């Protein structure tokens, strides 16, 4: 047998052996498929899953420590200081409001004082003008002849006549009064006495 034939024989033998082995595998396949799940179950049972971690025990917060006497004293002092500061702010606010009110009152008082001064001055000016008017009329009748002045006085309103005669010179008024109607002179005398009695003493 040459080498080529020997190789062919070996190949045939190898193929025959492989075929026998394949047939054995086919025959044993159901047994293998049943063994795999059993093996898996056994392996899983032998190697259990890690247990879930147990929850950590709940921690109870420690009770707060009772405030010491020093803390209580500090809190009391702090509250008292805040109350005093609030009172000081309230007093300062009231003082500011009072100051504003006083300023307004002072300004208003100054206005009223100035107004009063103007009114008083206006009254003085009016009195001076009135006095100047009566004195001018008195001078006018003093320059007239007594009978002419008497004729006017007999017809003049009594309040006006009183003001004019009151300001005339007594020496110049006498002849005029002598020439007037007696009843008119009597009325004038009564009114002059009443006017002089009501006048405040100098």
Automatic annotation (TrEMBL):
<feature type="compositionally biased region" description="Low complexity">
    <location>
        <begin position="61"/>
        <end position="70"/>
    </location>
</feature>
<dbReference type="InterPro" id="IPR006668">
    <property type="entry name" value="Mg_transptr_MgtE_intracell_dom"/>
</dbReference>
<protein>
    <recommendedName>
        <fullName>Magnesium transporter MgtE intracellular domain-containing protein</fullName>
    </recommendedName>
</protein>
<dbReference type="Pfam" id="PF03448">
    <property type="entry name" value="MgtE_N"/>
</dbReference>
<feature type="region of interest" description="Disordered">
    <location>
        <begin position="46"/>
        <end position="70"/>
    </location>
</feature>
<feature type="domain" description="Magnesium transporter MgtE intracellular">
    <location>
        <begin position="133"/>
        <end position="192"/>
    </location>
</feature>
<feature type="compositionally biased region" description="Pro residues">
    <location>
        <begin position="50"/>
        <end position="60"/>
    </location>
</feature>
């Amino acid at each position: 047998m040459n080498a080529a034939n020997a190789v062919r024989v070996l190949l045939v033998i190898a193929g025959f052996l492989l075929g026998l082995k394949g047939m054995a595998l086919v025959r044993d396949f159901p047994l293998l498929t049943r063994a795999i799940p059993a093996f898996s179950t056994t392996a899983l049972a032998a190697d259990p899953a890690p247990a879930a971690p147990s929850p950590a025990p709940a921690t109870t917060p420690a009770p707060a420590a009772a405030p010491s006497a020093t803390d209580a004293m500090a809190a009391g002092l702090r509250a008292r200081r805040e109350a005093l500061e609030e009172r000081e702010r309230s007093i300062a606010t009231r003082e500011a409001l009072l100051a504003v009110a006083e300023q307004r009152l002072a300004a208003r008082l100054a206005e009223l004082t100035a107004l009063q001064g103007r009114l008083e001055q206006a009254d003085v000016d009016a009195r001076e003008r009135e006095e100047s008017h009566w004195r001018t009329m008195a001078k006018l009748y003093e320059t007239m002849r007594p009978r002419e002045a008497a004729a006017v006085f007999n017809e003049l309103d009594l309040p006006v006549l009183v003001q004019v005669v009151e300001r005339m010179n007594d020496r110049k008024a006498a002849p005029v009064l002598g020439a007037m109607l007696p009843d008119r002179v009597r009325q004038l005398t009564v009114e002059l006495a009443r006017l002089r009695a009501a006048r405040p003493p100098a």
